[in-house]
Design a protein that fits this description.
Elements: H1 7-16, H2 23-30, H3 36-49, E1 54-56, E2 59-61, E3 69-77, E4 83-87, E5 99-101, E6 115-123, E7 126-136, E8 141-149, E9 152-157, E10 166-168, E11 181-188, E12 197-205, H4 212-220, H5 229-233, E13 245-246, E14 254-256, E15 265-272, E16 275-283, H6 294-302, E17 306-307, E18 312-313, H7 318-324, E19 332-342, E20 348-359, E21 363-365, H8 366-373, H9 385-406, E22 416-420, E23 426-431, H10 436-458, E24 465-467, H11 473-485, H12 498-508, H13 514-524, E25 529-531, H14 555-568, H15 577-581, H16 583-613, E26 620-629, E27 632-637, E28 643-647, E29 656-659, E30 664-667, E31 673-675, E32 679-688, E33 693-701, E34 704-705, E35 744-745
Parallel strand pairs: 5-7, 13-20, 14-21, 29-35
Antiparallel strand pairs: 1-2, 3-4, 3-6, 4-5, 6-7, 8-9, 8-11, 9-10, 11-12, 15-16, 16-19, 17-18, 19-20, 22-23, 24-25, 26-27, 26-32, 27-28, 29-30, 30-31, 32-33, 33-34
């Protein structure tokens, strides 16, 4: 009889040979033959009953380890940027193991939620995985209002562009109540009535509750709100002078909005011979967020802070963003400052960077600073009027002259300000005043950003540029059509510069079409982004530009700070080799997070505006045509800046032809031409706070009532000539009568 192995010997062999664990392989390894295999089977069954091994089909394995081939779910990245995954199923008593994925060049990019089949091995740093194939991408998610039914329920999405509901089976509601806001994920193929199936993964509460609007955006756009304990544990205390330059004697004041949640820049100006010395000091975030740390990993994933009317989803923990890194008055704060020497005409002579310690004497607001120089100082600004504010505004006058010579794009687009009550309800919607104080700070920051880019280029250091490429020809052609339709001219047959666009904007100044022209110029622009390759900044008319002035809320600025630290050899917290290696990847990541934040902020504003207008349904408003589409037209209200849709189906029996090139709609019976920029009077028919959607009925165009019905006579006031088209564009032809209401055709 062959000697049978002990249970410990069996377990040891199974752990050491995870790829050869069938019963046959076990018997072969111990030389067990014949009837002894019955006893081996009994021993293996006993180990399985004790939970010491697990059977998977014909294989046996240690339940506390992963099999050599596993189904994994991608979870994200670690602080080193390595992609991590966890087993799709885990029955071990220990914590679920993490697998570090080792992707080869050419393999598909993986993201959180993706399911993969991978070959796993145990290495020096734990489990490592090699991709065999991706077997499923991240499941579709939906945010919506749950409506309970007799057989589960339905979810009505909050996305106003979504026109379908989701079915939820009885066992997949997660206890959601009728009318509750929920987050759900796709649960499989279509269910009853052909609706897609979903399972509720999170209950978000009452959608009409105060401050629920920003919560919707946070979940809808996947913003990170909680910080890992490891990141919070890295927050250090205040930093003293050490080897830094002592700048505490300088009157570096912060000038911010009244509701500012952090202060990351401070400025002052000092006379110097016939010119000036301008100081711009920025919070030294790099001293707290070191390369490769958990804080750094979290900041990179967030990319930037996201601002809502009622809260901020910060890139950094509040203990840093609102305290240790914030340049609050009367306390010492580490900073990186640039000392800029200016000639009497505002041209830059030289500049030099310092890693210093500052103490701001005051935190001023834009409104208070402006009032002070306009002759109305208050008790806060009066002590700083003569020695701080007056020199700063004098420097601004010089910088403005240099700015005008450069001809950056001079858009005039008012910024909305939503005021909430303590309970989270909208009290008012107004437009922020554009003060000289705003322009002062803006010009100082632009100059400091240029200095940072120049210094790093001179030192041959990697730079995370802020890139804004020239607009595409097609977009400029569309802008030209809009301009000509408004009776304005935009140069043809030459390379367009910001100077030409500013001439168009100047032509529109004081006209009814001014806002529409400003919006059209903005839409013609490409979207700015971050990249280590310098392609210039078209909008600012600058050859090189890098963001340096807001490291509390932008990761790009933190990288620029680290590059400056490395170049000046100020410490061991400068740009790391890993920062340099993945500069392109990081640029793409933070450009994406920036766009995500912009969408979240815009969606939140739309929802607050819809909530604000919800009790004024059936009221009449005036505005302008701000957009034209095949299915209708958009009107921007003068009072709040809110945008709403006028569906073509609400405009009677007439058939409307849509011309994409000229952005117009033309009625086939009345000859009515609807184009961008026209004055409009509308009636509000729907205001959905959950989706942010507004729907209008169109009552008047340019002060004239619309023709009633498809047989109405043509109104001379409304029979406008369509904007001139380029010779290659086709003309709009008449079409036969249509029985479909309000349809448009390209």
């Amino acid at each position: 009889m062959t000697r049978l192995p002990s249970p410990d010997e069996l377990l040891s062999w199974i752990r050491d040979n995870p790829g050869d664990t069938s019963k046959r392989e076990v018997a072969r390894a111990f030389g067990i033959k014949g009837s002894d295999r019955v006893e081996l089977k009994r021993m293996l069954k006993a180990l399985e009953d004790e939970g010491l091994i697990a059977r998977e089909r014909r294989h046996i394995r240690d339940p506390e380890s992963l099999p050599p081939v596993s189904v994994l779910r991608v979870t994200g990245t670690d602080p080193d940027g390595d992609l991590l995954a966890v087993p799709a199923q885990w029955e071990g008593s220990a914590d679920m193991p993490q697998v570090r994925l080792m992707l080869r060049p050419g393999e598909p990019a993986l993201g959180p939620g993706d399911r993969i089949l991978a070959r796993t091995t145990w290495g020096e740093r734990g489990y490592e995985g090699r991709l065999i194939r991706r077997i499923g991408q991240a499941q579709a998610k939906v945010i919506g209002v749950f409506r309970a039914g007799t057989e589960g329920g339905r979810i009505k999405p909050i996305d106003k562009k979504s026109d379908r509901e989701w079915h939820v089976e009885p066992g997949e509601t997660n206890g959601a109540l009728d009318g509750e806001l929920v987050e759900a994920e796709q649960a499989g193929p279509k269910g009853r009535l052909g609706l897609p199936r979903a399972r509720v993964t999170a209950r978000l509460g009452d959608p009409s509750a105060p401050k629920a609007v920003s919560l919707i955006a946070i979940h809808e756009h996947g913003l990170r709100t909680a910080f890992e304990e490891a990141a919070l544990a890295e927050v250090a205390g205040p930093i003293d002078l050490g080897g830094r330059t002592d700048l505490r004697h300088l009157p570096l004041v912060t000038i911010d909005p009244a509701d500012a949640r952090d202060h990351d820049d401070a400025i002052c100006a000092v006379p110097s011979g016939t010119g000036w010395t301008l100081w711009v000091a920025i919070a030294d975030v790099a001293a707290y967020v070191r390369p490769g740390s958990a804080l750094d990993h979290e900041a990179r994933l967030r990319g930037n802070s996201t601002y809502f009317p009622d809260r901020v989803v910060s890139m950094l923990p509040e203990s840093l963003s609102a305290d240790l890194c914030s340049l609050m008055p009367g306390v010492d704060r580490p900073c990186i400052a640039v000392e800029i020497s200016l000639n009497a005409d505002g041209t830059k002579r030289t500049h030099r960077f310092h890693r210093g310690l500052m103490r701001s004497p005051a935190a001023l607001t834009y409104e208070a600073a402006q009032a002070a120089v306009d002759g109305q100082p208050d008790e806060t600004t009066a002590p700083y009027l003569e020695d701080v504010l007056t020199p700063l505004f004098a420097v601004h006058a010089l910088l403005s002259t240099q700015r005008d010579l450069r001809h950056p794009l001079n858009l005039d687009l008012p910024e909305r300000r939503i005021v909430l009550s303590d309970a989270g309800h909208v009290v008012s919607v107004a437009f922020r005043d554009r003060l000289e104080a705003h322009k002062l700070v803006e010009e100082c920051m632009i100059l400091a950003n240029v200095c940072a880019a120049e210094t790093l280029e001179h030192g041959r250091r990697p730079v995370m540029y802020r890139v804004h490429e020239e607009p595409a020809r097609e977009r400029l052609d569309a802008l030209r059509d809009v301009a000509e339709g408004a009776g304005l001219a935009l140069a043809r047959g030459q390379v367009l510069t910001t100077r030409h666009l500013n001439q168009l904007l100047d032509q529109a100044t004081g006209m009814d079409a001014a806002e529409m022209i400003n919006l059209s110029v903005l839409r013609a622009m490409t979207q700015a982004y971050y990249a280590p390759d310098n392609l210039g900044h078209f909008g600012l008319a600058l050859a090189r530009y890098a963001h340096f002035t807001s490291p509390i809320r932008r990761y790009a600025d933190l990288l620029v700070h680290r590059a400056l630290i490395a170049q000046h050899e100020w410490g061991d917290d400068g740009l790391s080799p890993q920062d340099t290696e993945r500069m392109t990847e990081t640029g793409e990541l933070i450009s994406q997070t920036e766009r995500r934040s912009m969408l979240a902020e815009r969606d939140t504003t739309d929802r607050y505006l819809a909530a604000y207008l919800a009790d004024r349904v059936d009221g009449e408003f005036v505005g302008r045509i701000s957009g034209i589409a095949r299915f209708g037209l958009f009107v921007k209200l003068d009072e709040t800046g809110a945008d709403g849709l006028v569906p073509l189906s609400s405009m009677g029996q007439e058939f409307f032809h849509y011309d994409r090139q000229s952005q117009t709609l033309m009625g086939d019976r009345s000859g009515l031409v609807i184009s961008l920029g026209q004055r409009a009077r509308v009636r509000l028919t729907e205001a959905e706070a959950i989706t942010g959607g507004l729907v209008f009925d169109l009552l008047e165009l340019d002060g004239e009532a619309l023709p009633s019905g498809s047989t109405a006579p043509r109104s001379k006031a409304l029979r406008r000539a369509a904007p001139k088209r380029r010779s290659r564009s086709r003309t709009v032809s008449r079409t036969p009568k249509s029985s479909k209401r309000g349809r448009a055709r390209e």
